[in-house]
């Protein structure tokens, strides 16, 4: 989607919360998806997993010290330039912030990047369920970090009981604003939450891999609650740009990712609009309809604790109701605000 753009996910969380473990899980379950990684230090990352994922040659160590202190935006761009070269063939890039890094700065750096091959892939904040209270006491900035996250992973769910986990979830939910919140053990989140998985050639989507089988038992304990929901919407009826924007502007907490294509019908008959939303971040990329292809709106919505039935209903009410409901030219203005124009970035992505 805007198919060549590579999502850049920022992975943050306090020392020992389980960032590296989560990253290793992603690498292990990546299979056909090529993940590029930027970390301060490769010490803890399973090089085996990286070899399996074919990543070793394409990762960049930033040396010692805090990434956001050690590099400025132009240096980050240098690394991103290397990782996004077409011959490297990455599908997603994950920047693991050191435990002490200011995630907001990293996110700003990614958003300020002039690299046209990347798109912001969200800020994932990892929290240690067992240490949450103590971490907040020692590091009051935790609350602020959670407030800007797009997805919060409450890790080490295996170390606390159901009740304690529910308390952490409530507190995190209160602090995390619009972020989706999921719990996990050993960082075992579904990679689909973070990026689109590439299904390797010869493999059927949904087929279990060796890893799935090996970790199936543990995974049964890794998801004490249904972690997230995915819902798809496909329709040959064009959407009304004003109503879709009203839906997107008020999208519920927990709706973490939206991806797909939108047909705005008469409002722009030449183009379909690739939509990419992660957390608060939203972009539309118009592109000409491929010749001979059915004009369909196709959306996938992924979130935690969302009301799928309500979302379906709201999306259905965005459909255009015949010629009397045809959008006028001005009704596209709301959409066009989210079409990227070179340097300019919409300001509402991050709170000040
Ligand atoms: N019980 C339990 N231990 C975990 C879990 N996730 C990670 N660990 C352990 O917690 C320790 C820290 O995990 P890391 O993944 O290194 O944490 P990190 O956030 O990358 O740590 P820094 O790089 O130091 O910031 C390791 O010993 C992990 O094995 C979990 O879900 N449950």
TrEMBL record:
It catalyses: GTP + H2O = GDP + phosphate + H(+). InterPro entries: CobW-likC_sf (IPR036627), CobW-like_C (IPR011629), CobW/HypB/UreG_nucleotide-bd (IPR003495), P-loop_NTPase (IPR027417), Zinc-reg_GTPase_activator (IPR051316). Keywords: Chaperone, Hydrolase, Nucleotide-binding. Coiled coil: none annotated. The keyword Hydrolase applies. Residues 228-319 form the CobW C-terminal domain. SMART domains: CobW_C. Gene3D superfamilies: CobW-like, C-terminal domain, P-loop containing nucleotide triphosphate hydrolases. PANTHER family: COBW DOMAIN-CONTAINING PROTEIN, COBW-RELATED. Belongs to the SIMIBI class G3E GTPase family. ZNG1 subfamily. This is GTP-binding protein. It comes from Streptomyces solicathayae.
